[in-house]
Queue: 2 jobs
Job 1
Amino acid sequence: MVIDKETYKLPNKNYHKQEYTKKQIVIGHTGRKEMFHYSAWKNRHNGEYKKTTAYTIDKDGTIYEHYDPKYYSDFIPLHDMAPFTIPITLTNVGWVKKDDINDRYYDWLGHNYILEGNDIVTKKWRNKEHWMKYPSKQLISLKNLTDKLCNDFEIKNDCIGHTIFNEDVDIYEGITFKSNYYQEATDISPAFNMDLFKTKV
């Protein structure tokens, strides 16, 4: 497995350079296409934005390391668990709105897409209905990365297995999702192939 540690490396001021024992991996998505979230991280809050992740996995399966995962960020800022987690982001726009007249889909920023049926999952969830799929190459890389991190940091290699809010998620040891922490979070979305991922971990 190849991990690119240089292309999108973050400065020290975009995370907390302190070490804690890791108990969880928390997975979310960018809500943006391509790697535009990286420049947003670097430019917010006068360059000191810390709601970042240790890794991004792009749609083609490329893994980018933004900072050493022994450190931590404010990816889940309202929970004391943040220092004990390794956050991973998947490049994915998340929910899209369907325009039946123009046969297009629009993301929350107004970008439009002409999508085939196999690019979209339609399921009503958290007040949204259409979701961009996570490519299989991305999920394979995610599986490989979580395997490595669980081994390296002695994290239990179990997945919580759902995207539902769970008020006890902070005591779970293993792989979780941002939507387990926040009722309003739409990542990971229903387009995530949970059965495939669970069988792989």
Job 2
Amino acid sequence: SNSTGPRVAILNRKLYSKRSIINAETLSRHLELELSTNVQVEYFEGSDFAHQVEFFANYDLVISPHGAQLTGIPFLPSCGAFLEIFPASYYNQVFFGSLAAAAGIRQYSLHPSHGDGEAAWKDLQETRSTRIRRQRRQVNMCPEAAKLVEGVRTMIQDWHECCRSTVSD
């Protein structure tokens, strides 16, 4: 692990994927300024499996839209975590959450509209339909910088705590 702080990256999807973080570069700069850390923006389109594994192994905290690019999360280092960003009317924390739990990786999520769990639960129920699920998740996103910074700040605190407890074990 890193003595100064976690290595942070945004794993984005290309715009044509219809589930891209359209303000990824701006968010990267906000995170760098607010949290005094480098934030790399990466894309997996055209990458082979070895490159994807290497990417996850080289970052402690990964921020990414919901999608198949997250299947590499078990390759995150110990104390690693990821923040999954969901489109407004789509929410399925279980999908990559179960993979994260099995790998001992912490999962965080950012959803633009869900202050309450009831709305998220309603969306989850409605998206059991494949047609609705496909339609709702094919949306490019523009997460609020302040909310993302707040989420990543929590991730960094948790990372430091995990690293300390790992050293003291």
